[in-house]
Amino acid sequence: MQKLVLLAILLSLAGSAQAGTPAAVDIPTDDKPLQAVVYRPEGVGPFPAIIALHDCDGLRGRTGRVRIANEDWGQRLSGAGFVVLFPDSHASRGIAQQCSIKAKKIRPDRERVADARAARDWLQRQDFVRKDRISLLGWGNGGIAALSAARPSLEPDDDRPDFRSAVALYPGCRRLGDTAWSSRVPTLILIGALDNWTPAKHCEDMVRNARGRSAQVVIVKYRGAHHAFDHDNVPVKYRRKVAFAPDAPGRVTVGTNAEARADALKRVPQWLSR
Q: What is the DSSP letter of 67?
C-alpha cells in the first residue's frame, strides 16, 4: 500500500512539473513551417485556446529560450485552463528583433495575420482544443496583428468557427485608426496612460471612431503605466533606438506597473473565458 501511495505521489509531482512547460511544434504553411511553442493545461481537454502573438522583440531571447514575459503569460494562462500557442514569427523566417527596424520584413497586418490564421488551423486539428473557443492575444506589434486579424474584412471563408475574441496589450493604433479599423469579435485593449511608444490617444481615437460599426470593443487605460507594464519586476527605464518612437531621438520608457500588471493578469483570462 505504501509503495502504491509513493508511486501516486511521484506521478503527481511529475505531472505538476510538466504542466506549463512549453513544447515545440511546427505548423504547416504554404511556405516554410511556422515554428511555435505550445503550453497545455493538465488533463486531456478539450480546452479553450489562445493564439499568443509576441512583440517586436520576438518570442525568444539571444540564448534561444522563450523570453521571460512570454513564459510568464504562457504558464499563467495554461494554469488557468487554456492551451496557449505562441507562433514564432521571427525565428521561422530567420529574423531577429524588429523594434529598431523601420522597413520591417514581417508586417503585423500581413505576415503576422497569416501566422495567426495558420495557428488557428493547427489548433482546430488538435483533439485537445475546443475548435469554437480560439482567441487572439498580442503585445505591442503582436497586438497590432491581433487587432488586424479581427477586422471584418479578414473573416475566414471556411465553415469552421472563427476567432472567439481578441485582446491587445499596448498596440500601436495610429495606422489602424487611419484605415478605419473595426472588429468582428469582442475586443479588449489594455494600454498605459504614460505610454510614449504606442500612445493611448491613438487607441482611444480608433475605438471611438469604430462605434456603431464594430463588435464590442473595451479599452482600459492604466493611470501611471508605461509600455510593457505587464512585465514582472522591471524598473521603469529608457529604451533607445526604437524605430517608431513618437518622440525623438527614438527613446521611450518601459517597465512594470504593479497595479496595471495585477489587473491585466486578472482581466485577460476573464475576457478570454467569455
A: P
Q: Could you give the CA distance from residue 42 to residue 81 in angstroms, rounded to a whole number?
A: 8
Neighbour count for residue 63 (Cβ, 10 Å):
7
Torsion angle in degrees (nearest 10) through CA of 119, 57, 55, 103: -90
Torsion angle in degrees (nearest 10) through CA of 77, 269, 184, 142: -50
- Degrees to nearest 5, angle at CA 136 with 217 and 55: 100
Q: Please classify residue 181 by burial: count the beta carbons closer than 10 Å to its beta carbon, then call 0-12 exposed, 13-18 middle and 19+ buried.
A: buried
pLDDT tens-digit profile of 231-273? 999 999 999 999 888 776 789 999 999 999 999 999 999 999 9
Give 153's DSSP letter: G
E strands present in the chain: 23-27, 34-39, 47-53, 83-87, 129-139, 166-169, 187-192, 217-222, 237-239, 252-254
Q: List the domain range (segments joined by +) for residue 136.
A: 21-225+259-272
Residue 239 lies in a domain: no
CA atoms within 13 A on the CB side of 196: 16
Amino acid 248: pLDDT = 67
Q: Which helix (H) or strand (E) holds 112?
A: helix 111-123
| pTM (2 d.p.) | 0.91
| Helix, strand or coil, per DSSP, at residue 260 | helix
* 271, 167 Cβ separation under 8 angstroms: yes
Q: Which SS3 state, helix, strand or coil, does residue 208 take?
A: helix
Structural domains in the chain (count)? 1
